[in-house]
Amino acid sequence: MERRKHDAELMKKERLARKMEFLDNPDKRDDIPPGQLLNMIPVKQGDAILDVGAGTGYMTIPAAKIVGGPVYALDLDPDMLQIIQSKARKDNVTNVKTLKGSMEDIPLSEESIDIALASLVLHEIHPLSHSLQQIKQVLKPEGYFVCVELEKYEDNGSHPRIASSVMEQELEDAGFHVIQRRRPTDAVYIIIAQK
Fold first, then answer.
1. CATH fold of 31-194, please?
2. Which residues are in the Methyltransferase type domain (predicted)?
């Protein structure tokens, strides 16, 4: 019995290590540094930021270093939230707040967030429209939503992706106003929208 428990714990640690390696892989993000992404929007000192599907804190920690306000890291996986907390402690960042939850029911007050970020996570959400409404609900009037996703092409295989034209339409249908479109590489697009 003790052996099985040890083996299960070892497998969990290996899965977590593989997940971290995948999420922190700069090739996956086509070298879009978080600072560069944050410079695309008018981030102000004291802004409240929500990192939706925060993963290992790839966007959370750099955002927290830029603003003095709270940076909320929302993720379903408590292991990811522990990693974010560990990174924040290591970097002496005190304004990171971890939230266990999903995009379908964001555990924040209405109109409490200045900027919401979703980096390479929206392609996993179905239906997308409900989650976009939840994000819009927590944004302050004229708050910004930054979406980073992988473009969908015919030869993408089975990896789920959302075409930029579809994402833009989803955002407009949710009541966002698209103010900027960027394509740092052929594979990645960035859409910045405002409530």
1. Rossmann fold (3.40.50)
2. 50-147
